[in-house]
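Appendix C reproduces, verbatim, an entry submitted by the partner laboratory led by Prof. M.T., so that reviewers can inspect both the input and the predicted structure.
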Amino acid sequence: MSKVLISDKLSSRAAEIFHEHGIEVDVRIGMSPDELKTVIGDYDGLAIRSATRVTSEILDAAGNLKVIGRAGIGIDNVDVDAATSKGVLVMNTPFGNSITTAEHAIALMLALARQLPAANESTQAGLWEKSRFMGVELTSKVLGIVGCGNIGSIVADRARGLKMQVMAFDPFLSPQRASEMGIEKVEMDDLLRRADFVTLHSPLTDSTRHMIDAVAIEKMRRGVRIINCARGGLIDEAALHAALEDGRVSGAALDVFETEPAKENILFGSDRVIATPHLGASTEEAQENVAVQVAEQIADYLLNGTVTNPINMPAVSEEEALGLRPYIELARQLGNFAGQITESPLVDVKIRYEGQVSQLNITPLTAALLAGLLSPLNGGVNPVNAPYIARKHDIEVAAETDEKVSGYQTRIHLAITTEKRRRTLAGTLVHGDKPRIVEIEGIQIEAELSDIVLFVRNKDRPGMIGSLGKALSDAEINIATFHLGRSKPGGDAMALLSVDGEVTEAVLTQLCTLPNVTQAKILRF
């Protein structure tokens, strides 16, 4: 039975969902890093929000961990590279709190336009400073949205309802999608130059850190107002403070800060700044949504291999996973076969998906094949970290599709190059879902791979089958299946034998002494 740890405060519904799926769950909130490191090795899954920090040290202790689910969008608190190298899937829930965060951005924009927090404080102090709080309308103002994904697109929709002119900078936003949304797609400099309000909805990466710095602010129109409900690191806070002081920026409404919890900050104390304690996702609806989503996603992955909202591997829906499953097994077997007969370092891997399989999502198939290929050479390889390990070892991987295939409805062809030689393999599915090896180094052979397979290479000579059978009989090893193939009469030949007993090194040595045998090796699947 799979076991999951919930280490941050989530809706109780998350634990209920795990129980409903037959998954054991422990809820242990507020653990120190040392406490988490002590217990994490017992769990297959980890459900978190933003409090738990999953560092490389934690992952080193997580020997059984298969998946980390973040209830929310940001994964700043997870060392994704370390998780990937360990073969741990990282997923988030980008849709559960999108509406809530977008509404918070709109609320901050309205509060900023009308100076509501300062006006509230002044009025409750009995000052009645009506002339002090001269606001601006949102109608007809230009809103510049930086990052128009799930949340940014909702902000755009709400802003258009407020009769604002909306423009967006997002490298992934297509002109067609922008047109459908009724907004203008622009470059960043154009947005900065024209916007009355700028709202940030981008992830925090090396390329977006401090995207709003002194240089960017200098390009903005004087009197601009800035809203940030995304990540604090997007703004250079010292540069923003200076711009607020000299009046270039009229106001800023911030839900996020470079250092959180933000107990002290250079921006605090100014009546031009509205600050909230990272409340973007803090509604009852959002907390319920992300808790339910992360529990469902973790459970589906552990039980069915369904990959939803992944950070470090391709997404695979439940329906897609079902259709891909036999192909994934075929790809894994092909890779594992090649890996077990490979004895020198890999240089490149070329995969061609032919016929029916060419119409499928081949990315998870490639990951499965690489996992099979690399697992005999590296411990702890799975489809999550296999592409990472290949890159780390400078193994060039190329995959292509071809709708045409000769002799089969579907086929996967694998070619690997090592420092010493090149090998090819091919496999297909029979009866819809049964993997078969159909070619090894140009030799046609159809074989089902059982748990233990004896692989023999030999010269095609009379008496070969008899001498091989006798040697195994003398060792009291029963042959379950026997598959043969040859390049031409009298040429190179090979055999794949499923056997019932254990083939020892002594037996393999004996087989290699048989006339015309060039290689004998046990393969395990």
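The mean pLDDT is 92. Additional entries are available on request from the coordinating office.
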